[in-house]
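Supplementary notes for students who missed Thursday's class. We covered one full example, reproduced here. Read the sequence, then the structure, then the short commentary at the end.
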Amino acid sequence: MGISVAEEEVQSPCVNICELSNDNTCNGCHRTLEEIGAWSFASDEERRQIIGNAKKRQVIANNG
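Structure (token representation):
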């Protein structure tokens, strides 16, 4: 039996474009500086929330 998607460790959304905008949001992964710093200590649930927030920021950035 394999590992289900829910059991897999949530991977970093980093795309190696590490450049902060004026509001301290990464232009590559759209995480805030605070979220980037918290990533290593975050649970998978917290990581999913961070990714969700980053995706929302990406949509806004691309449509803004």
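Commentary. The mean pLDDT is 91. The first helix runs from residue 33 to 38. If anything here is unclear, bring it to office hours.
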